Amino acid sequence: PSVTFGYIGHENRQPIARMTMHHYSSSGNRFQMGHLEWNSHTGEILNVETHPDAQRLGVANTLLHESKNIAKEQGIALPRHSSNRTDEGNKWAKSTGDKVPKRRRPK
């Protein structure tokens, strides 16, 4: 798999960073395994998605780890778990070993 980094837009005038993981088949076809988006000023993770065929393979954890590395290199805020998490997001956040803020359920 390969991991790419970029900016995808803004939230409240703050750039949103995105880390994406792809897998390339032997025939050269690209398959997006997942992505992680975070506010590059506050570090708050805004969205994590993993393709159903790539779940439970460590994709989200790899994206989090790589996002932290690139954030250090870029001099932007390191991704951190949001207090606004879904049930699945809450399970994942707790499994990472990172500090997890008290949860507020999303509306």
- SSE string, helix = H, strand = E? EEEEHH
End-to-end gap = 34 Å
Mean pLDDT rating: 89
Main sheet record: 4 strands, antiparallel
| Whole-angstrom Rg | 14 Å
In helices, the fraction of residues equals 10-25%
Q: How much of the polypeptide forms β-strand, as a percent range?
A: 25-35%
Total count of helical runs of at least 4 residues: 2
Morphology call = globular
Number of strands: 4
| Major sheet strand order | 1-2-3-4
**Helix/strand class:** alpha+beta
Characterise this structure.
It is a single chain. The chain has 107 residues and is α+β, with helices and mostly antiparallel strands. 23% of the residues lie in helices and 35% in strands. Strands 1-2-3-4 form a 4-stranded antiparallel beta sheet, covered by helices on one side. Strand 2 and strand 3 form a beta hairpin. It is globular, with a radius of gyration of 14 Å.
Tags for this entry?
107 residues, 4-stranded antiparallel β-sheet, alpha+beta, globular
In short:
The chain has helices spanning 59-74, 87-95; strands at 2-11, 14-24, 30-39, 45-50. The chain has 2 helices and 4 strands; from the N terminus they run ββββαα.
Mind sketching the topology for me?
Layout: E1 2-11, E2 14-24, E3 30-39, E4 45-50, H1 59-74, H2 87-95
Antiparallel strand pairs: 1-2, 2-3, 3-4
